[in-house]
Design brief:
By secondary structure, this protein is of the alpha/beta class. Helices cover about 50% and strands about 10% of the residues.
């Protein structure tokens, strides 16, 4: 299934040229002519990446991305700004709003394609590579890998109802302690470097843990991983 990219730009010619180029490149593309329309498409389709202009009617790109970032499931979604606003102040504001890359108009479609591929490689396509957890941790027979009896599952559910912790979904994967620590920090929006600094791990080791999390949750990117973790109670009040 092709990855989905959302293109938001009020200029029809620009929107059409980007859409045609990306579809030829093998992506599924949804398009909007302003930030308000684009925000609705994010909620409906959950794209893997956003390409957006800044100057648009009804809702500009800054406000659009700001609202996207308020959704926990989308705060790690890769965003590329396309704009004629090229001053240092504007670029700084763009990065502060949460964009991952900033291309000034006019731009080359080939360059945009390379930037998109680079971001998807970093955030999504790593899940396609085979990976192993670099630090396998043996679990005792009474650990979480053991199949629990009905009585034990009832007990866990009772603890959840009393507020001790949310019960794990029965479909939730088994995570190592280190993977759980990485997942907790990842859902806070930390980068690999920041997670590594917090856990005293190299960025490469963090990347391997993230890759393992992608594989175990069958997620294609960090936004999907965060959404999966929240839906299956893998993060929260432990």
């Amino acid at each position: 299934m092709p990855l989905t990219i959302l293109v938001a730009d009020d200029d029809f010619a620009t929107r059409l040229s980007i859409t045609d180029y990306l579809e030829i490149s093998g992506y599924s593309v949804i398009a909007a002519e302003n930030g308000k329309e684009a925000l609705g498409l994010v909620e409906e389709f959950g794209p893997h990446l956003i390409v957006t202009d800044i100057t648009m009617p009804e809702m500009d790109g800054y406000e659009f991305v700001r609202r996207v970032r308020t959704r926990p499931a989308f705060r790690l979604l890769p965003v590329i700004f396309l704009t004629e606003r090229t001053s240092t102040e504007e670029r700084i504001r763009g990065y502060q709003m949460g964009c991952d890359n900033y291309l000034a108009k006019p731009f080359e479609l080939q360059e945009l394609g390379v930037v998109i591929r680079s971001l998807l490689d970093r955030y999504a396509l790593i899940a396609q590579a085979p990976s192993r957890s670099p630090e396998p941790e043996p679990m005792p027979t009474e650990g979480r890998n053991r199949v629990k009896s009905k009585g034990e599952l009832d007990f866990l559910n009772q603890k959840s109802e009393t507020g001790d912790r949310p019960s794990l979904s029965l479909n939730a994967p088994s995570l190592t302690q280190r993977e759980q620590e990485v997942l907790d920090l990842l859902t806070e929006g930390l980068s690999n470097i920041q997670i590594g600094s917090r856990l005293h791990l190299s960025p490469r080791t963090v990347e391997k843990h993230v890759s393992s999390l992608f594989r175990k949750t069958e997620s294609n990117n960090r936004a999907e991983l965060v959404r999966f973790a929240m839906e299956h109670h893998l993060v929260g009040n432990w």
